[in-house]
Amino acid sequence: MVILARTKVKDAVEKYPELKEILLSLSPKFKLLNNDAVFKMVSKWATFGDVARIGGLSICELLHEINATIGTEEDLLKHAPECITEKEKQPELPAKHPDWMQEARGLVLMDVRNRDNFFFPEVLGHLTGLKEGQILKVVNAFYPAPLIEMLKEEGYDIFYESPSFHEHILYVRGRGRLVEGSWQEMKEWFPLLDATVWGKDFFPMLIQEAESVLPGSGFRLELRMPPGPVVNTVETLGFESFVEEKRQGEYALYFYRSVGKVEGAPAVMHRVPLVIQSATPVVYPIIMRMLESKRLMREIKVEELKIWDKTEKHLGWIVNRKADISFSAVAAVAKLYQKGLDIKMTSIVVWDNFFILTRGLVARDFSGLKGHDIYLPLIKAAPPYAVTIFLMQKLEYDPADFRFVFGKPFGRPEEIKDKLMHGEADVALLREPEASFAIHEGKGDIRESMAYRDIWEKMFPGQGNLPNAGILFKGEVLRSYPDLSEMFLEEAADAVQWVNGNQSEAAMMVADLMGVSQEEAEFFLSRVHLEAKPSKVVLDHVMHYIDVLNKAGYGGKPFGEIRSLFD
């Protein structure tokens, strides 16, 4: 098979696969063709004459190079005049402006002369957004043969003209309808985002990247988690989606940002924009399950979702009124409420979250901790310390007999866990999920010696466990969207019930996001106590807990003045 200027690249590469690498090496302009999907699509319509023009190559030199590679150079010599002089037959196009150009109702300009990326998907994206009678004008630096062939095959009306050597203009008539499956056929061309580097910032980075995508373009992700939360989140930003399960538990997600309203696309404009945050990764599985809810995601647009590892930043978002909904510690928001913030905690979802962990010793009660440094999270004026000294005093221990150690400036739970792991600490108070991760990683060297829930229950039978954290709303959100707020709480309760009953699936959903293995995530979910209850129902338990904190020196006004935070 001798290769000539009019030979389709697709036909030649199918017969001689080695030609692909030769083509890629001939010009830096061909770097985009290194993408298999892009190469497959371009080669379907492009000839070697097109390749020469696009790459700025001599057609004769190109043909000699290609034919020499496959051993057909002698056959090419028989066609030497054609090599030098033959001009390919261009598609038969109108010689003068057609009537539909004269009757155009609008023109959309797309200048790709200085573009070094593959713009075919964007061209089709713009076409899907055109109304009937509108025209897309594509200005290129060379004769766009592959694009013309593609559009002809799709049935578009087109007109081509070239006012100058470096200006090739293609007019495409809008049809007012979407070419079925067009963007899905191009999905492999979309840039692959490396989500593995996002870690705990996965959703903020995802939303940021999605917001930067231009209409008519898209992106793709590879995930090892159920795709529902990601799909629902991105669709609220005006994207269409396509999901493929590559292997069990591994998914490829493709997202395309429509130019105009497409039939069947989500009604994004009517969704309530919300910023959601959590002070702890404990509630990650709850949030992920909620993001799978079609009912909820039809009503809200997640503008930002942040899971903090630094409590003070989470509180800053509340104080600065940036967060609309927060999963927050009861004690922390009680203090904020006393300062006059317009907030309401309407549900408690995390309970009994304090554990004394030990390494190399067994402590059945506080007496076993004497003589050891007890590492505590956060600072002295925080609930972990306040609850600890309250329980000690209630059990007739003197807190002055114990050595408490705090980090500078804060005792970060992750840092305390690492000290236990490395043998730098032998006693620590940790909450979830760090407590479970420390026990799991410790492989028997680290154990749970005391659970505050057990002590609490003995002291206050029937008072319930420690109401540690709940769902906090900005006051104006509750007032402006009372039905939506009620739905959010219902979905949260359903999510908690699902997580408790489906720990394996929930672990798979959050393992990568939490930076742990599936086994570690499942171990954590088997230990954490999640139970969604309206604050009004457990108001006495919550007030009792805050009263304990006040008596232990946590500070604040008498608890009676903050009942309205929960009531």
Distance between the termini: 83 Å
Question: Whole-number average pLDDT?
Answer: 85
- E-strand count: 18
DSSP helical segment count: 27
Q: Tell me, briefly, the overall form.
A: elongated
The named CATH superfamily of the domain at 355-459: Periplasmic binding protein-like II
CATH architecture of the domain at 355-459: 3-Layer(aba) Sandwich
Helix content: 40-55%
Spatial strand arrangement across the major sheet: 9-8-10-17-11-18
Task: Give a short overview.
The chain is of the alpha+beta class and 567 residues long. Helix content is 41%, strand content 20%.
Describe this structure in words.
This protein is an alpha+beta fold and 567 residues long. Among the domains are: 9-85, no CATH class; 99-184, 2-Layer Sandwich (Translation Initiation Factor IF3); 190-268, Vaccinia Virus protein VP39 (Rossmann fold), CATH 3.40.50; 355-459, Periplasmic binding protein-like II (D-Maltodextrin-Binding Protein, domain 2, 3-Layer(aba) Sandwich). α19 packs parallel to α20 and α20 crosses α25. The termini are far apart.
Q: How does the SSE layout of this entry go?
A:
Elements: H1 9-15, H2 19-26, H3 36-45, H4 48-55, H5 59-70, H6 73-77, H7 80-85, H8 99-102, E1 106-111, H9 120-129, E2 134-140, H10 145-154, E3 158-164, E4 167-173, H11 182-185, H12 202-211, E5 218-223, H13 228-235, E6 239-247, E7 250-257, E8 272-278, H14 284-291, H15 294-297, E9 300-307, H16 311-319, E10 325-329, H17 330-338, E11 343-351, E12 355-359, E13 373-376, H18 383-394, E14 403-406, H19 413-421, E15 427-430, H20 434-442, E16 446-451, H21 452-459, E17 467-474, H22 475-480, H23 482-501, H24 503-514, H25 518-527, E18 529-534, H26 539-551, H27 563-566
Helix pairs in contact: 3-10, 13-14, 14-23, 14-24, 18-26, 19-20, 20-25, 24-25
